[in-house]
Amino acid sequence: INAIYVTINTINTASVLSSNSNQFAFIHLQSEKHGCVSRQQYREYKGARLTNLGSGNYSARVRATSLAGNGSWTDSVFFYVPPPKRDDGVTFYLVIIIPIIVTLFIASLTTILFFVNKKRNSDRLGNGVLYASVNPEYISAAEMYVPDEWEVAREKITMHRELGQGSFGMVYEGIAKGVVKDEPETRVAIKTVNESASMRERIEFLNEASVMKEFNCHHVVRLLGVVSQGQPTLVIMELMTRGDLKSHLRSLRKENSTSQVLPPLKKMIQMAGEIADGMAYLNANKFVHRDLAARNCMVAEDFTVKIGDFGMTRDIYETDYYRKGGKGLLPVRWMSPESLKDGVFTTMSDVWSFGVVLWEIATLAEQPYQGMSNEQVLRFVMEGGLLDKPDNCPDMLFELMRMCWQYNPKMRPAFLEIISSIKDELDPPFREMSFFYSEENKPPDTEELDMEVENMENIPLDPASTRQPSAAIVVSSSGCTGGTPPPSAQQLSPMQGPSTPLLGPVSHSPPGPVASALSSPGQALDKHSGHVSANGPVVVLRPNFDEMQPYAHMNGGRKNERALPLPQSSAC
């Protein structure tokens, strides 16, 4: 057994008073500590372990101890235990100061965020009124679909085969009983909504189809019924067995057909007349289509072309659309300059799209502006660029396109005027079935027409269009009656150029490229005859669309100021 002997050396000073002089004596203090080290501890530590030693000088020695007695001491081993090092306050900072700093930082950040959020809410709420956000799973009563007389019992509908994918779900061909008067069974197109669709999407599907409830025109695809009770939701449409016009035109290409591939001019004019008639009906009912294209026109079994169901074919031809600035998808290749620039959609922007549809017919549904990206098309059209004339396109058809592509929307012809210019080339059934020849299509009041023309200012959308010649007839007082010009009147040639753009009978006054003239006091206008009385003012009258009219054709920034007539059926 090992024993430990520890000598603790400390030095203290004491003052010793001497009678002879001041002296200092050093007193050597010594203390011993004994301890035993067992064999187990020795094996564990490979020797003796001294603990809890303060700073100072030490000496240690050992000896063996047994029942027989004690052995001799070994020589002393001297060692020094230094005092603990000073940390100069580092531990203090780590333990005390840093947590305090972190706590203050978090508190400051929380306070700043609180006041910023409070300020933001104050700006948003204004007078302190609280607005609750709408839960998308809840639908207002105004958005709910209410079943009406168009509701069809589900058991009357039988699905047969798939026709294709629609924007909301699959489209099937099927049989519907009792949806058409005097027909026990009718072949129909059945549109469905996906099973995963939310309630809001189902109602949107029904409401979009419900737009067609207001329409009753032979050249607009008819809605036949709705199945809103139960699942899945169904919309019953008139079946157009030959699909959309775009697919039909492409099927006529040489590589897809062994028969006659190019439709004759008369057939293309027939398609144009049927589409224009459907659009004229929508226009008369204050409806702007906004997405007129061959893909949205449908072809019936007898090749009649009709305006398709609105907005339901977007997913099928998704590449025809472009998302501008994170907004909704836009059919930029069919859009007018004002629609691209300002987002304005009117019946005149539909006329522009109609011109692109004519181009699709003449090219058997090629993509407009081939080789250009959607962004390039957007800039090109806004700068006045137009589509080129298709190969082998009849002049009459291309002239009709050019009129539809007037940069100024007020210079484009209305759909009724388009039909009027080609009506003699349309099939006899057109007269019986069309909106154009129906009682519903009544000519407007003379006064209303005059007011419309009076407000028909040539306001350009682009500075380059300010040089467009005026589409007006200037008549001065000459005492003429019955529409016959006075002997002194001059008939201007439509090819005289921009220096003489006025058409129709004029006076001896030098003509100028203006759309109106100064009025004189005491004059009156005979609106019905289109002339003025002896004291009447010089006025602007809208010319007959059968006459030559100056349309400014802009192509890539270049202007062609040749006066263009509306194509006449005799040109076919």
How is this structure best described in words?
One of its GO terms (biological process) is glucose homeostasis. Helices cover 26% and strands 22% of the residues. It is an alpha+beta fold and 572 residues long. Among the domains are: 2-81, Sandwich (Immunoglobulin-like), CATH 2.60.40.10; 139-239, 2-Layer Sandwich (Phosphorylase Kinase, domain 1); 263-453 and 556-572, Transferase(Phosphotransferase), domain 1 (Orthogonal Bundle). The strands form ten sheets. A five-stranded antiparallel beta sheet has the order 7-8-9-11-10. Strand 10 (223-227) and strand 11 (234-238) form a beta hairpin. Helix 5 runs antiparallel to helix 10 (415-422) and helix 7 runs antiparallel to helix 9. It starts with a strand and ends in a 7-residue tail after the last strand. Mean pLDDT is 71; it is low at 1-19, 23-27, 125-135, 312-316 and 446-564.
Show the helix and strand layout.
Blueprint lengths: L1 E16 L4 E16 L1 H7 L10 E6 L3 E2 L2 E2 L6 E5 L8 H36 L31 E9 L4 E11 L2 E10 L6 H12 L12 E5 L6 E5 L6 H7 L13 H20 L12 E3 L5 E3 L14 E2 L5 E2 L6 H6 L4 H17 L10 H9 L12 H10 L10 H8 L5 H6 L12 H9 L18 E3 L14 E2 L13 E2 L18 E2 L4 E2 L6 E3 L6 E3 L2 E3 L2 E3 L2 E3 L7
Antiparallel strand pairs: 1-2, 1-3, 3-6, 4-5, 7-8, 8-9, 9-11, 10-11, 12-13, 14-15, 16-21, 17-18, 19-20, 22-25, 23-24
Helix pairs in contact: 5-7, 5-10, 7-9
Membrane topology: Single-pass type I membrane protein
Catalytic activity: L-tyrosyl-[protein] + ATP = O-phospho-L-tyrosyl-[protein] + ADP + H(+)
GO molecular function, one term: insulin receptor activity
